[in-house]
Amino acid sequence: MQDRPRGGPGRAYRARRRTVVRGIAAVSVAVLALAGCSSGSKGGSGTTTLLVQNGAGGATGLLAAYAKLNSQFEAAHPGVKIKFVTKSFDEVVSTAKLQLSGSHPPDVTQTNQGYQAMGTYAKAGLLTNLDEYAKKYNWVSRQSSKLLELNGHFSGDGVKMGEGPLWGISVTNAWIGLLMNKQLAAQLGIAAPPQTFAELERDLATAKAKGVVPFQFGSSNGEMPAWLLSELLLAKGGPDAVNDIVFHRNDPTLKSPTAQWAAETLKSWSDKGYFTPNYTAYKTDEAFSNFAKGKGLFDLAGSWLLPIPGTPEQTKNFTMVVFPSVSGGGPNAVAAGDMPWTIPTHSKHHDLAAEYINYISSEQSADVLLASGNLPSFAPADLDAQIAKANLPAPSQDSLKNGLSVINKGSPVPFIDWGAPDLYDAIKSGFESLASGSMSVDSFLSHLQDAFGPYVSSLK
Amino acid sequence: MTLSLIRPRAQLRAGPRPVLRRSRLVPRFVGYLYLLPALAVYVLFLLAPFGHSVYLSFFSWDGISPHKYVGWANYRNALGSAEIRSAFVHAFVLITFYALLTTAVALVLVGIMGGLRVRGLVALRTILFLPYVIAPVVTGVAWRWLLSPDGPINGIFRTVGLGSWARPWLGNFNWALPSVGLIGTWMLYGLVMMLLLAGVQRIPLDLYEAARLDGANPVREFFAVTLPGVRQEIVVVLVLSTTAALRNFDLIYVTTQGGPGTTTEVPSWMVYRQAFFVGDLGKASALGVLLTAVILVLSLLILRPWKRS
After folding, report:
1. Euclidean distance between CA atoms A291 and A190, whole angstroms
2. Which terminus of chain A, N or C, has fewer Cβ atoms within 10 Å?
3. Which residues contact B197 (CB under 8 A, 6 or more apart)?
């Protein structure tokens, strides 16, 4: 699966726990990249080389799928050669500004979503407007408009996310789901995954009372507090509660009653001891691996973390379901595309680049992606057969099915921290202070609003 | 020089002197010429980028759009922010670990090793020096494991019946910063010890003999001979370790990422965050310039007393 925490603009720097200071390496990498790019988009003897850059470094399954798609594309286009450059997510994000503004960018590249990335590049005129291509290839019928809005639309002035022209399109997706240990649940007398938020809280209380860690949690790298806050806002206020914040619609504020409820819930879960003891010392992957070892009834996880380590026999008792809402409606979840594919303005082959993007986002490509355990942007008609063919462990199958149901039948929403660059840090530090009692619910919300409100006004 | 000293005064004042001076000037210029390659690199890769940072610190800039001049606003905002002020306070707390504790530990080791007459001293020294050779990132990852809630250190506490001492060191509001400081101490004491040992080896042996003849015990000997003998090395060590403490980034990045809460946020972490995460290069530059200024002032303060003597 994708080794790709979905995160807001640049937030994956820390989310990915890369051990090297990428920033320092950024310039040298950019220089190398530019040197690499300039070394020929036109090969010998009439062949055209399309330079395609991805940020999926480390995601073996996904890269294998792309390799297959690339050779299919080359077979269908005689005279075209794909030069597929793989970089880490961090590298693509941290070098994008230099690369896109240079005169030899890749012909096709993945570009991060968000105000700091796609918005800024669109405003600076560094990306190609894909509206014409979208019409030509009918991409609108292929992906839900919600997904396209989330991942590819931005106003030309870089101010309005989810509106204006289409600049990019995501081919695979990731979502945040609730992992549940069914074996532990059965021992606790819990028959099925919770359908409503009340049921979830009841299960948490049951686990706590019987001495089982109710919720595997780790706040050390800040992802899980941001995910949980997003899911709680979504559970209480529905998709608009999150969308308004991220898309800056309808005078958004984090001092709303919904946010108040979410903060109080976070606080009460911490007070009641629902989270892993000493959770401030754990990172997301450590919480995940503790859950995989059978410690804890629930965990919040990104679909890219799957498959759960272990033999099929060991992992068959785990499942990944949609975080339940207060009303029981849904299915809604935080679900966003992988970095969207874009065409830099200075690309040498715009039309061919569009054709390539069209190919990797097509239905037949979706089958290839699904077969390697990746979550495509839409469900093929024969979804169950395709999943069965992929021969994946049970929790990964659940993740694909439930993720696709969110994307196609429910509402995928972005990560709340996409709303403003400072928000991620504010959530992390604020959450820990809130949970430890050194910050009240009110001051927690003010802390978030301080990181959010001024940024929204600064864009206007 | 020696020639001119034995010349009569009058002669010195008259004729030959200007000639002498001119002939001395020529080699001095040649000296600068020798410096040129290094100087060029220094200017190109250090002074010029620093100058550019100072320039950028007066602008609001996202890296692509046109610069917007904002005067001193970036500095005012930085100094006015309680979070950034506390980041500097954290850096000063780290100095006590990186510089003071490290030097104290290294001095004790040097004192002990100076008196040791055993085989394998070189091996022992090498082993003690090893932590410095390890990349800070690796050090951070290793210590993150050692200090984790279920890690070996808490395990030892529990085994010997001190279970109440076990805690999530790096996730604890009170202990995270001292824990990072201790990791830094562990990382640096090897280097500091080596530098001090080099100094000790320069101290003439007869000084020790004299001290011994006067009836000094090893402790007295240490304070009377060794410590004054390595004064200059201590100054170097303090400058190096203070600088290391102030620009500490890798350890924070790997171990705590500024948490829990904001208890381990340090200036260089915030520079990184502002530049590559928030995308505000002006503010990041202003922070970087402030950090450089603090390092310069502290280094000068440490170096001054030494210069006077």
Report:
1. 17
2. C
3. B110, B113, B125
Check: CB of residue A176 under 8 Å from CB of residue A323: yes
* Lowest-pLDDT range of A245-249, A251-255, B119-123, B126-130: B119-123
Which tens digit of pLDDT belongs to each residue from A360-396?
Answer: 999 889 989 988 888 998 877 788 888 888 888 889 9
Three-state DSSP at B119 gives: coil
Tokens of A432: 């820990």
Among candidate residues A377, A216, A398, A396, the one with its CA nearest the CA of residue A321: A398
Instruction: Give the Cα separation of B3 and A441 in Å (integer).
Output: 83
Q: Which helix (H) or strand (E) holds A387?
A: helix A383-390
- Cβ-nearest to A429 among B148, B254, B259: B259
**CA–CA gap between residue A371 and residue A375 (Å, rounded):** 9
By CB neighbour count within 10 A (0-12 exposed, 13-18 middle, 19+ buried), where does B105 fall? middle
Query: Torsion angle of alpha carbons B4, B10, B13, B17, nearest 10°?
Result: -40
Burial of B17-55, coded b for 16+ CB within 10 Å and e otherwise, reads eeeeeeeeeeeeeeeeeeeeeeeeeeeeeeeeeeeebee
Q: Whose structure tokens read 């991409």?
A: A139
Residue pLDDT, tens place only, B247-272? 889 999 889 888 788 899 999 999 98
Phi, psi of B248, rounded to the nearest 5 degrees: -55, 115
Look up the pTM and report it.
0.81
Contacts of A115 (CB under 8 A, 6+ apart): A9, A158, A161, A418, A420, A421, A459
> What six digits make up the tokens of B117?
């007459």
Contact A421 B279 (CB under 8 A): yes
Tell me which residue has tokens 């070394």. A39
Chain B: closest CA distance from residue A398 (Å) = 31
Please check whether residue A222 touches B, CB under 8 A: yes
Give first-to-last CA distance, chain B, whole Å.
Answer: 25
pLDDT at A314: 86
**ipTM over cut 0.90:** no
On the 0-12 / 13-18 / 19+ scale of CB atoms within 10 A, A186 is: exposed
A245: Cβ contacts below 8 Å, ≥ 6 apart = A233, A252, A254, A416, A419, A452
Percent with pLDDT over 70 in chain A: 90
Which of B141, B179, B248, B278 is the best residue to mutate to test the A interface, defined by the most A CB atoms within 10 Å of its own CB?
A: B278
Q: Which long-range contacts (CB under 8 A, 24 or more apart) does A368-371 make?
A: A368/A65, A368/A68, A368/A69, A368/A72, A369/A62, A369/A65, A369/A171, A369/A172, A370/A400, A371/A65
3-state secondary structure of B261: coil
Residue with token string 């700091």: A116
For residue B86, the Cα-to-chain-centroid distance in whole angstroms is 20
Q: Residue B20: pLDDT above 70?
A: no
> ω into residue A380 within 30 of 0, thus cis?
no
Mean pLDDT value of segment A278-290:
90
Q: Give B134's Cβ-side CA count (13 Å radius).
A: 22
Please provide the DSSP assignment of A92-129 as one string. Answer: HHHHHHHHHHSSS--SEEE---SIIIIIHHHHTT-B--
Q: At what angle do helices B73-80 and B281-308 cross, to 10 degrees?
A: 70
How far is Cα B184 from Cα A229, in angstroms, rounded to an integer? 34
**Contact yes or no for A23 and B272 at CB 8 A:** yes
Beta bridge partners of A300: A178
Q: Which residues of chain B are at the A interface, by a Cβ-Cβ cutoff of 8 Å?
A: 62-65, 137, 141, 147-149, 167-173, 249-250, 253-254, 256-262, 265, 272-273, 275-280
What pLDDT shows up at residue A38?
Answer: 40
B64, B149, B168 member nearest A97 (Cβ): B64
